[in-house]
Amino acid sequence: MFSLHVDTARTWRGGQNQVLTTLMGLRALGHRTMLVAHSGGELRQRAAEGLDLIPLAPKTEMDLTAAWRLSRVIKQLKPDVLHAHDPHGVAMAALALSMSTQPGKPPLVAARRVDFHLRGNSLSRWKYRQVDCFICASEAIRQMLIGDGVLPGRTVTVHEGIDIDRVERAEPANLHAELWLPRHAPIVGNVAALVPHKGHRHLIEAARSVVQQVPDARFVIAGEGELRPALERQIKEYRLEKHVLLAGFRPDVLSVHKAFDIFAMSSVTEGLGTSLLDAMAAGKPIVATRTGGIPEVVVDGQTGVLVAPRDHDAMAEAIVRLLKDEALRRQMGDAGRARARSLFSAERMVQNTLIVYQRVARGEASGE
Q: Which of 89, 254, 288, 366 could disulfide-pair with 84, CB 3.0 to 4.6 Å?
């Protein structure tokens, strides 16, 4: 099976990690893959060794020049499946296929990793009509697509996956020394881009309450994004500068996970949350919001505690409970590690993705 993958993002987030995991997993199984990616993007840099790369990205969603170049690539390479991993990639792939006059065009598969509704404008409706099958990162996303009018036969749920062994091999970062934290201070961690739907302001609200009950607790948020200035102001307003630290983008994110005592995710919406998978594989108990695909990952009361989105009081209560109960933290962490290995391995994700490719290549994606 020869799959051609398209991802236009410049930054590195969970989606780009899934692209690379998929490509490497397919190649390990003996399948040919090629990647079309932004020439200056982080994905292309990280995939520079061992993968066939084509530097190409649209300047706008309707970049006809980029789409024409991609159509020539498709004509020359003749892939069995075209897999677009982000919305701009879907648009470029759909345009490229529409420009082609060759018979036997490859089916278009689109990854859907966010639980946002499809836009209702004419361009969005057109590009998504060209998709033969949506691979949804969670059942919550799949049900949202169906609610938006996508026929069920054009959707499938393939939970995202991670390299469990790689997580287990990672050495813990020494965050106490790096960030000048008190030696025995417990760390509540978060890894996410600083964007609105991740709900960091609610996590900081929770932290305000937590430190009143557990003064030694420290919150470390790893990630960058547009909300950094606003979050810095909030931290300063609440006088939490010593307790809540914005650690920025961390390339050693797995080692950072290993240094946490608890992982907290405060998302208002969330497709699935691969950082949850990393945290579970690292043996960390979870406190997270009951939204999107998160309940498909975290089992409330077994691998963590789920609370309502925006309910910082409930989040604070759950965090304090875990901080004060080391045995419960260990029990939930062990259960999370076992669940991650059983259900969210990269191998399982790649095998299930390959099954989708084989189905659409046979023309079995339908509108039923």
A: 89
Helix, strand, coil percentages for the chain (3-state, nearest 5): 45, 15, 35
CA separation for the pair 257, 172 (Å, rounded): 7
Select from 313, 320, 335 the least CA-distant residue to 266: 313
Nearest to 86 by CA among 47, 121, 37: 37
Q: Could you say which DSSP state residue 50 is in?
A: S
- CA geometry: angle at 254 spanning 355 and 220, to 5°? 130
φ/ψ region of 126 (left if φ > 0, alpha if ψ in -120 to 50, else beta) reads: alpha
Q: Which two tokens stand for residue 28?
A: 């390990």
The values of phi and psi at residue 5, to 5°, are -110, 140
pLDDT digits (tens, 9 = 90+) for 203-253: 999 999 999 999 999 999 999 999 999 999 999 999 999 999 999 999 899
- What tens digit of pLDDT does each residue of 112-145 get? 998 888 887 888 888 899 999 999 999 999 999 9
At which residue do the structure tokens 């520079």 appear? 48
Tokens representing residue 200 in the block: 């960091």
Which pTM was predicted? 0.89
**Which single residue is written with the structure tokens 């590690």?**
337
- What is the rounded CA–CA span in Å between residue 289 and residue 306? 5
Secondary structure element (H or E) that encloses residue 37, with its range: strand 32-37
CA-nearest of 262, 320, 311 to 290 is 311
Distance CA 152, CA 134 (A): 10
